[in-house]
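WARN retry 2 of 3 for item q-0093 after timeout on previous attempt; input resubmitted unchanged.
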Amino acid sequence: MPFEKWHGLGNDFVILDGTVVPASPDSTAVQALCDRRFGVGSDGVLLVTPLEQDSIRMEMWNPDGSRSGMCGNGLRCATLFARQRDWIRSRGIVRLDERTVAVHTDGDQVTVEMGSASVGPWIDAPTPEGSATEVSIGNPHVVFFGPAPAQDQLIKLGHRYQTHEHFPEGVNVHFAEVLGPGEVRQTTFERGAGITLACGSGACAVVAAGVATGRLERQTAVHLPGGILQVEIKEAGPVLMTGPAEFVFVGTWPLA
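OK item q-0093 returned
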């Protein structure tokens, strides 16, 4: 089974061509592909399939084999993967399981119209970890404003919130340290993946939470361990996320 490895700011993916792969990978295959010691190693698997011109379908799986509904970094990687094959030109549409997003490219930069961000019901809600703000942008997020804890503590906290009664389907956990009105540093524990170098939908959630609570401007640079994303929260319209995606290598995975 042929595949390509891509990353968006270090958030890396195994991408499968839907015109070549006979069927969607099962949970066992996804876990094997994502394994960083015995597999290819990635934060997820994407299956990208062309539809009509300038339109593709993207399906995503987390390293634990579960399905993922929205992934900003994955969307950018899938877009340039499709652009290389002329499935998408400078502008296009990506269909996900439950929504459709518009994308446009400029070199290695991809802007994704992420849809609207819904903030609440938690808005600066008191928790043992600090004030928490809840955001949905096609997937669930909780944002704590302040410096990130040590990595081992973030892992423990992240796992604890996957079984929190307020988030029955789990949640992406972010710490956001405001550096200025238009600048923030983000650290993330992703649902189904753990700590990652970047989370695109999380960056959108962090800025949405910052705007809602008066901490950030509508156009904000989000500093992640893997690099910088530009996020714009429009007063009326979709959240815009802009950042790079990069091809890493091509390979073949043996079918069972």
